[in-house]
Amino acid sequence: MRFIVSFLLTAVVSYAAGFYFPWWSIAVAAFLIAVIIPQKPGITFLCAFFSLFFLWSGLSFFISRNNENILAHKLSLLIFNYDSPLILLILTGLTGGLVAGLAGLAGSYLRHRAN
Amino acid sequence: MKKVAFIISTLLTVVFVLILNNYWKFGNQNIPAFGKLLNPQQGCWQNAEPLNYDFSADLKFTQLKGKVNVFIDQRLVPHVFAEQENDAYFVQGYLHAKFRLWQMELQTYFASGRISEIMGESLLESDRQFRRLGMVYSAENTLKELEKDPIILSECNAYTSGVNAYIESLTESSLPLEYKLIGYQPEKWSNFKTVLFMKYMSYDLAGFDNDFEMTNAKSFLNETDFDKLFPINDVISDPVIPKGTIFEKQKVFPVIPANADSVYFERKTKVEAEENKPVKENGSNNWAVSGKKTKAGAPILCNDLHLTLNLPSVWFEIQISAPTLNVYGVSFPGVPGVIVGFNDSCAFGFTNGGRDVRDYYEIKFKDESRKEYWYNGNWEQTKWRPEIINIKGKPVYVDSVSYVMLGNDLCPVMYDNTFSGGKNENHNYYAVRWKGNDPSNDLKAFNLLNHANNYTDFTDAMTFLKTPGQNCIFAGKNGDISIRAQGEWPAKWKGQGDFIMPGVDSSYLWQGMIPEDEVLYQYNPDRGFVSSANQKPADDKDYPYYLGRNYPIYRGMEINRKLKDMNDISVQDMMELQTDNYNLVAEFTTPVLLKNIKVSELNPVEKTYFDLLKDWNLRNDPGSKGATVYELLWNNFYKAVYDDEYAKAPEVVLRPGENSLIEAIINDSDYKFIDDVTTAQIEKMSDVVTISFKKASEQLKKIDDRGRLDWEKYKSTQINHLSKLNPFSRKNLPIGGSKYSINATVTTHGPSWRMIVDLSGNTEAFGIYPGGQSGNPGSKYYDEFIDNWVEGKYYTLWMMKEEEQNDNRIKWKMNFSGL
User: Fold this and answer.
1) Strand B24-26 to strand B394-406: parallel, antiparallel, or no bridges (unpaired)?
2) Nearest to B99 by CA among B331, B329, B324, B365
3) How many helices (H) and strands (E) does chain A have?
4) Under a CB-based contact definition with an 8 Å cutoff, are residues B545 and B514 in contact?
5) What pTM was estimated for this model as a whole?
6) Partner residue opposite A95 with nearest CB, options B38, B49, B177
7) In whole angstroms, what is the distance from residue A90 CA to residue B93 CA?
8) Which domain holds residue B702?
9) Do B457 and B543 belong to one domain?
10) Is the ipTM of this complex over 0.95?
11) Interface touch A70/B48, C-beta < 8 Å
12) In A, which residues are within 8 Å of B46 by CB distance?
């Protein structure tokens, strides 16, 4: 239950912050949620990671679908020299996920310390 | 333990964020800020434009005096209807920025020698070159000239504030993709940037010369050889203004300096400096046929402009309508108005004039400090202009450029001991006198042209076009056709400016400009058409001023030959002519080449290529293998003829223009250069052609093995993204054409805008450019026109009336109004 709430809250707060703040606000969001909703460090990492992985790759997926992957084809070639919109979506998810996961981990350790 | 884990994970997060929030460079590899770039709410995903994107909008700007309705059609062409003309330019600026901002800015950075600010040190030499040519200095002066004209100034002010209105509306997510990839922000636009773009076009079209290469060619060839390789009078020619035309009385009489033979035409001087030049093939075709020759009985005007093909395209299609004008055509993102197009009364177009208006003078400085120079018997004070060049990731570079007064012109000493332009060291001083550095109000020419009602308006408009000089073509609804070889050209004596000239006194300076009333033109000529394709504007025997060498001959010849025989002409005929892949040079040379190949000495593989050539239909069509065989034979033959003579040539040198070789072949004569001077025996044409053919066959075999023998595969036409990012470019386009075909599509260069305007009835116009209206690589409109362009298709250019706004071609509506 905690996992799901934390997972959803991290995604929602990150998404909302994305309208007003720079991209790294996802780190702040994941950190805060991890402090508010304590879970084991490993679990927190996975929770924040998957939250942002799905948020970022999901948003990109819908954007790219409406674009019929025109840009995703070109950018995947530019970045990987390999034509695969899917890999670009995964990279997007990983980038968001890792930043959020690490921040969540830090938040979790802070909470554990305070305890 | 927890404390340590907290610190480590916090640090890791911060480091990770910092890495992903910054742009990095490893070796030649640029790494973008992946966090910024990939976040779906602000980064590159935001540039993935939905296919069903809604371009409609209601926008309010205090700068507008009235309402402006913009109807955007299915090809993303805006039809701008404004209550006030200047409001239309505001909206044009806004739309240019909305669709092409990155390109607009990059082009002006390039023109003003600021590209290393964005791209880094590797482009410093390009920046220095433009600064040293005087681009910024002359743009400043031209801006002052423009500001004296209240009409043009208010047009530009409106345009500039339109561009800036868009820039101010940008958010991090709506920033064009390239800014996000490279990592910088757009600046405010200004009238100065508009002028810089115009200067760039001057450079591109009127910045070509061969002074250094010719000087060195002269240094190692004897006079007879030199004249043979670089003829002033081409035996074969068909000038823009036909032979036998009687010209206006000569009013300026340039005098050749008394010491020209000993200090100018001498054959000793060698130079080390090396020029970076615009593409030589920058040229175009235009023609207009009179109603006498057309099916509909009204003139048809055609124009295709050959430039380096890029994405986004140099052109943006637009209709501008206001109570004072109604014009449709292509515009330059960065410049208000329409450049090539038509209005309710007439159509207009251009080809490049191509005369040499960039000359060099060797300056004698007192010492290496360059503080004083010798001129007309005195030591004169040098003027200085420090050029401050910001370089991405490096300290500022200050280039101190010395300027010298030559006559009434302050000229930059472009090449000196700090700048050779190439790899060699240069210890001489060369000042450049370039016509493009003179202030002029060329925008006025286009403003008046957009408003032109008739032939007189056209000629009045064109008098404001100084540089780059163009063959301006006109056709009116009333049946008039005309061409003007317009521009402000120096009146030169024969041979002036072909080589580096002495700059120690005034005797070698340009002695005046050709007067406006001596501008070459044709108005409703008897032959029923006017045309140009960058060939020499007039025959040297008729024309009193020196016109220079090395003009392309054959495209123009082919156009004239075709037009002469054509009658009852339809738009369809003109489309076929404009996209014709026939190779006139091949028609002249192939029979001679075939005759000189010793078939008995060919092996079976070579024989197959020989058969391909023999059966070739002289057309550079897609799928043609013979065209590839011809091309390689020609290239090898050219090398075989000249490489031996040029073995000891200086590094910076002009290779013979192909005109000399083509003429020699056509005449099938004892062309002196055929013989290989490195061998004892005297080679004949058949020896050299056969050796060349064998060499060509070896290369053809390799090409054949890679499956690329078809002409379009061998040629592999490509349209490159402006910053050369391959995934944003279009490669291997299956289009025919060659530099000798009317369809002058070569590898990176070709018809950047094809247009045909039939001035009968309601005026029917057709056009296409190889690009798309949107500059965003993430938009389906980015390269939308390319495939049709490749196939030689055209779009109808729809001169919309405002009451047609419910037409199903209109997809979106943007309403602009004041507050």
Assistant:
1) unpaired
2) B331
3) 5, 0
4) yes
5) 0.96
6) B38
7) 39
8) 584-715
9) yes
10) yes
11) yes
12) 63
